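Please, structure for the following, as tokens.
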Amino acid sequence: MPTKHEQIIRHIEDLDVGAKISVRQIAKDLTVSEGTAYRAIKEAENLGFVSTIERVGTIRIKKKQKENIEKLTFAEVVNIVDGQVLGGRNGLHKTLTKFVIGAMKLEAMMRYIDVDSLVIIGNREKAHELVLEAGAAVLITGGFDTTEDAKRLADEMELPIISTSYDTFTVATMINRAIYDRLIKKEILLVSDILIPLHDTFYLQTNDPISRWHELNEQTKHNRYPVIDEQMKVVGVVTAKDIIDRPHDWPVEKVMTRHPITVGIRTSVTNSAHQMVWEGIEMLPVIDQYGRLLGIISRQDVLKALQLANRQPQVGETFDDLITGQIKTAEDERGQYLSLEVSPQMTNFMGTASSGVLTTLLVEGATRMLRHMKKGDLVIENVSIYFIKPVQIESTITIRANVFDVGRKFGKVDVEMYQGTQIVAKALVTSQLIDR
């Protein structure tokens, strides 16, 4: 029997895209408290199929697929630019195909407008109506209003007119930044990308006898299986060590490990790999927001996915990429070292290299040295850092790493950072190694 919270989530999922959602109405329709309804709506917003907009309310939006993640809904644009909706509220759930800056003559601008575009424009009231007639939405910069005719037309065509106090350049930058951040997220491997789905997953139920484990082991050669209850919720895991010397007619519920480590489909593959390495396990159950089994991921699939990701071109460049991309590798009589110049983006408000940047560089120096010695992947386990003196902007720094303890499963590296001949920072980095 699903809980009240689960019933509300399913009710919201079943609503038509564009429908307005009210805490009070849901509480009344499903006979729950307003507090329960509010918490469920907030979870639906986190799951990506509900959006809350100031002065408009909460609406059901279409949940975007991963390959379409770089596209925004008009509702999301309102939140990005702190906008006010002047008309066309029923179209906020629609996805915009592109945005156009209306900084040219009217005739020339209309040539660039397609259906479901977003035109960023100032207080050109005649242009507002023409844009709507062409099937595009309007974003008015500078905090200006529009005509009542334009608002009525927006309502009729279900195309939003949004007003924001920001100028055109700032608005375009904000929207570009949001799209760019989504492109970075798009390239991050998630558990959903490597999930072995439920119909291909072998699992046990709480009342299954231990003999069923032996049957699955003989069939699949695996030794770790999730255990589910009658509602398909994961309640445990059974491994080979759990069933040693146990009677075959015992139920698996009696020997299983309760409260197992699980992951969701939105968990990153890197995070899952860390948990597998840290706990020394070969398989993780994947669950939905209600704790029900969706499938599993295996350690072998996780490692393959990480190795493949390392060979793929990155669409979105992160801040770490900007830092590490400037590093140069060189060698002298003391061995290999890294060097780079401290750029303005790496500094804090005082004009010295920020502690975050220095930490990234120290860890990168240790990581490169370990990968040079051990051809495989690694997970950073612990970093102890000592900052000795600040590093001035436009200074050239060098990083030298010394591996002083390495085994089959771990490595310890001593890293030193220099500005000229003076040492400015030191670090001791410990990591777990993963053989490819």
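The chain has a mean pLDDT of 85. The chain has four domains: 4-60, 66-187, 191-308, 319-435.
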